[in-house]
């Protein structure tokens, strides 16, 4: 449901992993056994393309709080100045909207 509702994923599935994938990455973020850098992985898979519209969260049948997770992953990747697989650097919501909001 969340993939169908995500306008970013439907337009750019090659750039953006989608809400389901980022929820899976987020589930492993604080797992002490997992040694993969999940923040770097989220940047590589285009977390910064998410516009935080919340449609994925609204249609989620499991009622997962996806928007706060996406905001967390975006902020962590931008704090580390990580880029996606095409070299585009992540920006936090604050940096993206500076001067507009």
Note the topology:
Blueprint (H helix, E strand, L loop, with lengths): L1 H4 L1 H5 L7 H11 L8 H7 L10 H5 L6 H14 L13 H5 L4
Helix pairs in contact: 3-4, 3-6, 4-6
Based on CA atoms alone, the radius of gyration comes out at: 13 Å
Question: Structural class of the secondary structure composition?
Answer: mainly alpha
Number of strands: 0
Number of continuous helical runs: 7
The span between the termini is 31 Å
Count of domains: 1
Describe the structure.
The structure is a single chain. This protein is mostly helical and 101 residues long. The chain has one domain (2-88): Fumarate Reductase Iron-sulfur Protein, Chain B, domain 2 (Orthogonal Bundle). It has helices at residues 2-5, 7-11, 19-29, 38-44, 55-59, 66-79, 93-97. α3 runs antiparallel to α4 (38-44). The longest helix has 14 residues, at 66-79. The chain is globular. The N and C termini lie far apart (31 Å). The relative contact order is 0.19.
Keywords:
single chain; mainly alpha; Fumarate Reductase Iron-sulfur Protein, Chain B, domain 2; 7 helices; 50% helix; globular
């Amino acid at each position: 449901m969340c993939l169908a509702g995500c306008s970013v994923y439907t337009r750019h599935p090659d750039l953006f992993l989608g809400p389901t994938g980022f929820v899976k990455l987020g589930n492993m973020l604080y797992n002490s056994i997992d040694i993969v850098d999940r923040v770097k992985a989220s940047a590589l898979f285009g977390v910064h393309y998410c516009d935080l519209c919340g449609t994925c969260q609204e249609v989620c049948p499991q009622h997962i709080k996806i928007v706060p997770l996406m905001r967390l992953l975006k902020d962590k990747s931008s704090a580390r100045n990580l880029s996606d697989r095409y070299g585009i650097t992540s920006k936090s919501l604050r940096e993206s909207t500076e001067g507009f909001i």
